[in-house]
Amino acid sequence: MTLTISVESDSAVKRGIQQTLTALLPDWFNQGDASLKYAEKAEVLPGYVAWLDGEAKGLLLYKQHAAIAAEIFWLAVDPGCHRSGIGRALVSAARDAARRDGLRFLVVWTLHSSSKQKPFEATRLFYEGVGFHYLMEERFTATESAHALYINQLADR
């Protein structure tokens, strides 16, 4: 089995991969309007695709916010490939891009542990396992679950 990570420039291909992965991961991405927003962002944000023997098995959307930081805006891996190194390879590609862009930090938002949603426990453990550190909690609306911001320092300056 051969894993390759590449930047996908075709917006329709990125959106198609994002929608396919969303459908495969309803415990993470069954969010109605939010899922549509992510699909739209797949068309415009840089996307790193994990190809396993020619099939798309993962996607990471990368968003630069400022002169010092970028965000993993969206990341998903085919559930049949979880714990195979695909997510780690996609995060590595995002780190490499951020370093090439001269950035100091890579950040990611996910649901906070107070949300009690089991799939996101695995998500938090994944990000911690690839070097991210919990930074803060944020509740964007009064009715929404709390989110956790994780940060990864890329370089000392």
Question: Which terms would index this structure?
Answer:
5 helices, 7 strands, single chain, alpha+beta, globular, 157 residues, 32% strand, Aminopeptidase
Describe the structure in your own words.
This protein is an alpha+beta fold and 157 residues long. It has a single domain, classed as 3-Layer(aba) Sandwich (Aminopeptidase). 36% of the residues lie in helices and 32% in strands. It contains five helices and seven strands. Strand 4, helix 4 and strand 5 form a beta-alpha-beta unit. The chain is globular. The relative contact order is 0.14.
How does the SSE layout of this entry go?
Blueprint: E1 3-8, H1 11-24, H2 26-29, H3 33-44, E2 47-52, E3 55-64, E4 69-77, H4 86-100, E5 105-111, H5 118-129, E6 133-138, E7 147-153
Parallel strand pairs: 4-5
Antiparallel strand pairs: 1-2, 2-3, 3-4, 5-7, 6-7
Helix pairs in contact: 1-3
